[in-house]
Design brief:
alpha/beta, elongated, 383 residues, single chain, 40% helix
């Protein structure tokens, strides 16, 4: 059985309109060639009606696109403004605190590079960044710390720091490295600058670590580069006590109960004063005391057994006699403390002092003090 096609309401209206037009054909104006039939007119009307909403929709699309383009441009402009304002605020903050700016970043980059290089060395147990920052008025600065394997030689340590200078960019960031390890019985903790040329770094390390093997501890600090060498308790004066090391450095040892400290000058040179005769002379009076040799000045404290009696001729004369030829001893000044303990006398009146003149000692003071000094010199000449 055949099914009838579904008839729409538009189809019914179209047929009805056609019938009405046909019935009124005699009274209507004849159709010309270009006239539209009712059917065509109906179809045209329907198409026109169906196109109306479509044309309205198309007219809205360009407006939506323009709005989207405008919003997109607005977002871009807002982003540009935010970047400019943010950059300006960052510039102000970096000017006030360089650590958050390029200088601080450069310092941290150099420090990490140096620590990574040290960590990759077979002589290094561990390495890390001690600090890396930039401060207003000082610029960037960085320091790394490394623990070396015990018995790493001085030459190996020198090569390690020389290579660190080459690996890290120290041209714009001052870099120093602290190395610690044990070598031939010496505990070493030294800080060296990595800014100098590799050859100078090697020479400096070899020079400053010359007491290794004889000293108990060796420490070195930056930026002054001073070194502290402690030989501990010894039976004889250390052979390296006069070897040049860093500027204004000190070497200390204890012999026969007397603690001796020798300090270098600005060039790292130590006085070549014969210390053993001085210690022998001082120990005749007391079992403990201190002897300080700073450049051309020799200071002795501990010769007084009783402060009520003060510094006696018998206690002072042997010490003066031990360095009677001050020119050969390399001394300019000799000071003998009238106190029992060092540190109790900040008053110069407690010191009896002698000045080297033409190779012989002369009293430095006048008055009663000068008389005491002259009496000591006379007693020393009799020995």
């Amino acid at each position: 059985m055949l099914e009838h096609p579904k008839i729409s309401w538009r189809y019914i209206l179209h047929n009805k309109a056609t019938e009405e037009l046909d019935s009124n054909d005699s009274t209507s104006t004849p159709q010309g060639d270009g006239a539209l039939s009712p059917a065509s007119s109906g179809i045209f009307v329907e198409d026109e009606q169906s196109e109306a909403p479509r044309s309205n929709t198309l007219s809205i699309v360009p407006d939506d696109k323009r709005i989207r383009d405008f919003l997109k441009k607005g977002h871009v402009m807002l982003a540009v403004v935010l970047v400019v304002v943010g950059g300006f605020l960052y510039w102000i903050a970096a000017s006030l605190d360089p650590d958050i700016g390029i200088s601080g970043l450069r310092a941290r980059t150099v420090a990490r590079s140096a620590a990574h290089h040290l960590s990759s060395s077979p002589e290094v147990i561990s390495a890390k960044v001690s600090y890396a920052y930039a401060a207003s008025g000082y610029g960037p600065i960085a320091q790394v710390k490394a623990r070396l394997k015990d018995e790493t030689s001085v030459d190996q340590a020198a090569e390690l720091l020389a290579s660190t200078h080459q690996k890290a960019d120290t041209s714009q960031v001052p870099l120093s490295a602290t190395l610690s390890w044990k070598l031939n019985g010496s505990d070493i903790t030294v800080n060296f600058s990595c800014d100098d040329s590799p050859d100078n770094i090697r020479a400096q390390i070899r020079r400053d670590l010359s007491p290794v093997g004889e000293a108990k501890t060796i420490t070195r600090s930056e930026p002054d580069g001073s070194i502290k060498v402690d030989y501990g308790t010894v039976s004889t004066v250390p052979s390296s006590i006069t070897d040049p090391i860093g500027p204004e450095s000190s070497q200390t040892f204890t012999l026969d109960g007397w603690q001796v400290t020798s300090t270098s000058n600005k060039n790292g040179q130590f006085a070549n004063t014969p210390l053993e005769p001085v210690i022998t002379a001082a120990s005749q009076t007391s079992t403990t005391g201190t002897i300080d040799l700073d450049g051309g000045t020799l200071s002795v404290t501990g010769l007084v057994a009783d402060e009520n009696k003060g510094l006696t001729l018998e206690a002072a004369a042997p010490v003066v006699h031990a360095v009677s030829d001050c020119r050969i001893a390399g001394l300019n000044t000799l000071q003998l403390n009238g106190k029992v303990q060092r540190g109790l006398s900040s008053d110069n009146d407690y010191w009896l002092s002698f000045t080297c003149k033409d190779g012989a000692w002369t009293p430095q003071h006048g008055g009663n003090t000068g008389h005491d000094e002259a009496a000591i010199l006379q007693k020393a000449a009799e020995l």
